Amino acid sequence: MHEKLNTTVHLRRKHMHLEDYTCALCHSQTEETWQHLFLFCPLTQACWLSLGFILPNDDNIFNLLEHLRTQLQVRFFMEIIVTILWSIWEIRNDAIFTNIEPTVQSFRRIFKREFAWVILRAKASYQPSISQWIEVHVYFFSSSL
């Protein structure tokens, strides 16, 4: 993600003029780096927490992946992580380009929709563990919010 994702800070480095370079999700004065957007933004942390994840206070991508792999304890952990990141990117783009207020509920709605596509392409041997994970993390945590 480093230097590949067009966060506002990265666009500024490319000399693109924007009215604002701060986070579109939390409306703070914090610059929108990939670390802030996906890990440290209060709304993003609430999104991760809504699925039962507690992020470490570490922006090292390898440490983060290992931490999440350990928390998940499933073979399809990367599919979950990528879907979470994509869902965060979507609520961010919705906020910027269509003025849709970013919320944990909109994140969860997008996550469910996108993860349904992952399920359709998953190996048959993964289906029972995926179904169990969804039951616990997606449906249980939505009723406890």
Beta-strand percentage range: under 5%
Residue windows where pLDDT falls under 50 for at least 5 positions? none
Let me know the average pLDDT: 82
> Distance between the terminal alpha carbons, to the nearest Å?
30 Å
Number of helices: 7
Order of helices and strands: HHHHHHH
How many domains make up the coordinates? 1
Total strand segments: 0
List strands and helices in order, with pairings.
Elements: H1 8-13, H2 34-40, H3 42-50, H4 61-72, H5 77-97, H6 104-121, H7 127-143
Characterize the structure shown.
The chain is built from seven helices and no strands. The protein has 145 residues and is mainly α. Helix 2 crosses helix 3 (42-50), helix 3 (42-50) packs across helix 6 (104-121) and helix 5 packs across helix 6 (104-121).
Compose a concise summary of this entry.
With 145 residues, this protein is an all-alpha fold. It has helices at 8-13, 34-40, 42-50, 61-72, 77-97, 104-121, 127-143. α2 (34-40) packs across α3, α3 (42-50) crosses α6 and α5 packs across α6.
Keywords for this entry:
145 residues; 62% helix; mainly alpha
